[in-house]
Design a protein that fits this description.
The protein has 205 residues and is α+β, with helices and mostly antiparallel strands. It is built from 4 helices and 11 strands.
Amino acid sequence: MNEERERTQAGPAVTPHFRASDCYYHANSKGTGSALKLELHPAHDDTPGSVFVRMAMQRTVASQQGGVQMFPTFDWKNSVVLKLDRSDLSQILQVLRGMQESVMDGKGLFHRSSAGNTVIKFTHQIEPRPGYQLSVWRKPPTGEAVNVYYVFNMDEAFALMMALERAMLYVCFGIPEVFPRPPMAPRQNTFAPPPEMRAAAGDPF
């Protein structure tokens, strides 16, 4: 009884905010697979929108341990995070739509941040299997350079294209909000009838 009273006095529980992500996983028996997650960050106030991409290489392979199926895992602890703005997304969408074979004619996108210098390449490939490869090279301020990649098959590439096309609306304009208008003063009748109409109505003026 006391516990119920305390919960009532404390008010309703606050639901934590959760940002949904679009996830892609490719694991293999060699341990050379990779995974990536995309998160949409809509524009707000004076902050432009973006899509964050987190990429991780495969850490362990699937196995059986004591009769228990162990699924492959990915090295999210040492993942590489990218922030793609409107211009970056436009370049990637041009490849997905078939307007070009690779971003910036194969040169890729160059990012410079506190995480280091980063080159992002997105390329349409035919061999060894049709798809699109996202590859990232990053040289941190200290330590060795890091290379991560992910190959989208054609089904994944179509879903990616549709998702990014619709995400562009929120990257550019954010989530639309309706703001209440201040109350408006009543309109005054400013219509002045012509003199002949006033005379017909018996108005001496």
